[in-house]
């Protein structure tokens, strides 16, 4: 059986950190937003772990070649609740990706399911490999005739 301790030997340390960093201890600290990125066919897939963050609290913006993801997670408890332990990160999460010229920033797609934000960034048409046709075979025959 797990019990929550009512008296916390680190309470003073927590109080000091809250005074330094803000009311919830996370106001000025950057929060982690783990990411995976890989190429799949003609798309780059980027996935961010954002457990407990609703889709309407996530912003994805592209300006020039910089893609910015911002998400905010607030507390699940109310002001008058007696919080025993608060270890889950809260506050604003932010991450920026610099997109290369070979990516199509105009057609980025985003979806969020089960706490995972997935971005699909297509490779620009001009950057895809293409076959170059070679002319000259018929021209050579006409010259020799």
Automatic annotation (TrEMBL):
<dbReference type="InterPro" id="IPR002068">
    <property type="entry name" value="A-crystallin/Hsp20_dom"/>
</dbReference>
<dbReference type="InterPro" id="IPR031107">
    <property type="entry name" value="Small_HSP"/>
</dbReference>
<dbReference type="InterPro" id="IPR008978">
    <property type="entry name" value="HSP20-like_chaperone"/>
</dbReference>
<protein>
    <submittedName>
        <fullName>HSP20 family protein</fullName>
    </submittedName>
</protein>
<feature type="domain" description="SHSP">
    <location>
        <begin position="26"/>
        <end position="137"/>
    </location>
</feature>
<comment type="similarity">
    <text>Belongs to the small heat shock protein (HSP20) family.</text>
</comment>
<dbReference type="Pfam" id="PF00011">
    <property type="entry name" value="HSP20"/>
</dbReference>
């Amino acid at each position: 059986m797990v019990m929550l301790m009512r008296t916390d030997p680190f309470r003073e340390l927590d109080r000091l950190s809250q005074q330094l960093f803000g009311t919830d201890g996370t106001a000025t600290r950057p929060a982690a937003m783990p990411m995976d990125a890989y190429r799949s066919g003609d798309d780059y897939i980027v996935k961010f772990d954002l457990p407990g963050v609703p889709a309407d609290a996530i912003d994805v913006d592209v300006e020039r070649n910089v893609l910015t993801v911002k998400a905010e997670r607030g507390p699940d408890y109310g002001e008058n609740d007696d919080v025993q332990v608060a270890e889950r990160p809260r506050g604003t999460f932010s991450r920026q990706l610099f997109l290369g010229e070979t990516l199509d920033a105009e057609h980025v797609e985003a979806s969020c399911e089960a706490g995972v934000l997935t971005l699909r960034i297509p490779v620009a048409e001009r950057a895809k490999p293409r076959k170059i046709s070679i002319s000259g075979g018929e021209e050579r025959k006409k010259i020799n005739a």
